[in-house]
Design brief:
Elements: H1 3-17, H2 21-31, H3 38-50, H4 54-65, H5 72-84, H6 90-99, H7 111-141, H8 145-158, H9 191-196, H10 198-210, E1 217-218, E2 240-247, E3 250-251, H11 253-256, H12 260-267, E4 281-286, E5 290-295, E6 302-310, E7 316-319, E8 322-325, E9 332-334, E10 340-344, E11 350-358, H13 364-377
Antiparallel strand pairs: 1-2, 2-3, 2-4, 4-11, 5-10, 6-9, 6-11, 7-8, 7-10
Helix pairs in contact: 1-2, 1-3, 2-3, 3-4, 4-5, 5-6, 6-7, 7-8
Length: 384
């Protein structure tokens, strides 16, 4: 800031403090004749607002924001000015300001304007959501259930209530596959057959858990030197364990012998057959009061199916922006290369039957190519 500008700002501050808003305005305009600084335009905006000239104040605050477009205080001032002018952009402007709220405690003088910002923005969002929903009602009524789900998510993304999540596998990304968090049931006609076998699979789970020879291992096991921070809290942790039936394509005989009907059911499903990598199938046991942190899987060429068997009320599973509560006997298929996490907040054990299946969009030739590459690479997905 040049000395002449600093001097004019100081004079304007004294004039404003003495109630001479017209004098302060002229001094600040002189200070801004050479382009001015953010400090000049913010002070001029405040003076114009105090003088009851909101449009002039808006022009000044926009000049200030040209220097620092994410300035929290300036954005709040801009939103309040638009609100005073009954401008239809005010609601969105409040949202822009709230998005730039700095971390930590703010000075007390921000409290009333923050409260107004939240109230005004929430009202604007609610009105906008109702307006958008009303405009799509006729279309949604004629849409299929899957189409309605996608339309609702489209609207939710536009309203910033959710955001897009993308497939980010740790090892293998096959191009042009759909990025879906939970996949439509219509793609997997065998889900009804799987769900009908819930009691049978649960009985075999009980048998294998009672067996003295059953192999129960930590779900996550890797060498400490590997850079896998997402799993550090649960590495070799008995709070999340698995009873494998198929582990990287290898039947685990001590467990399989107790689960013949589960194995027969799996044999009729489109599981990947990749040497050293898949198929995989297991009972996943999550201990009471245990969280599985956000993470992603190894390859988008396969999807993962969950069939909940023992589910205390309140256990949930999030994939991307959608959270579901497990319900016994209600299976679903999801893309584990999209960020997902889980929680058992109860004092009881949660058990889910889990296995992998091919992504249905892959052609026969593409599946052969995936199998050949992973087998040659020797680093195939490390199970589920």
């Amino acid at each position: 800031m040049q000395p002449a500008e600093r001097s004019l700002i100081d004079q304007a501050d004294r004039a404003a403090g003495a109630g001479d808003l017209a004098g302060a305005r002229e001094l600040l305009k002189r200070a801004g004749e050479g382009g001015g600084s953010e400090a000049v335009w913010l002070r001029l905006a405040a003076v114009e607002r105090a003088a009851g000239r909101p449009r002039a104040a808006l022009v000044a605050v926009d000049r200030a924001l040209a220097f620092t477009p994410r300035d929290f205080a300036a954005l709040l001032l801009r939103a309040s000015l638009l609100q005073r002018l009954d401008d239809p952009q005010a609601g969105e402007a409040w949202g822009h300001a709230l998005a730039q709220q700095p971390a930590g405690e703010l000075p007390p003088q921000f409290a009333p304007v923050l409260a107004e910002a939240r109230e005004r923005h929430a009202a604007w969002l609610s009105e906008r959501e109702m307006r958008l929903a009303a405009s799509m009602t006729a279309v949604e009524q004629s849409a299929t259930p899957d189409e309605r789900d996608r339309i609702a998510r489209f609207r939710s993304n536009v309203l910033r209530k959710t955001r897009p999540y993308h497939s980010e596998p740790t090892h293998y990304h096959f191009p042009a596959l759909p990025e879906r968090e939970f996949h439509p049931r219509s793609l997997f006609p065998w889900l009804d057959r799987l769900e009908a076998a819930t009691d049978v699979i649960a009985e075999e789970l009980k048998a294998v858990m009672m067996s003295e020879r059953a192999e129960l291992v930590p779900y996550i096991q890797y060498d400490d030197h590997l850079p896998m921070d997402q799993w550090k809290p649960l590495n070799r942790n008995r709070n999340w364990t698995a009873i494998h039936l198929l582990d990287r394509g290898r039947p685990v005989s001590a467990n399989v012998e107790h689960c013949p009907r589960s194995m027969a059911l799996l044999s009729g499903l489109p599981q990947p057959q990749v040497p050293g990598a898949s198929p995989n199938a297991m009972f996943s046991l999550l201990a009471p009061n245990t969280a599985i942190p956000p993470h992603v899987g190894v390859s988008n060429t396969r999807l993962v199916c969950h069939l909940p068997l023992i589910v205390p009320e309140g256990c949930w599973f999030r994939v991307g922006a959608e959270t579901r509560y497990w319900q016994r006997g209600q299976a679903f298929v999801f893309d584990d290369t999209i960020e997902h996490e889980a929680l058992n907040p109860t004092d009881q054990l949660r058990v889910v039957f889990i296995f992998d299946v091919w992504a249905p969009e892959l052609t026969a030739a593409e599946r052969e190519a995936v199998t050949a590459l992973m087998a040659a690479d020797g680093q195939g997905p490390g199970g589920l």
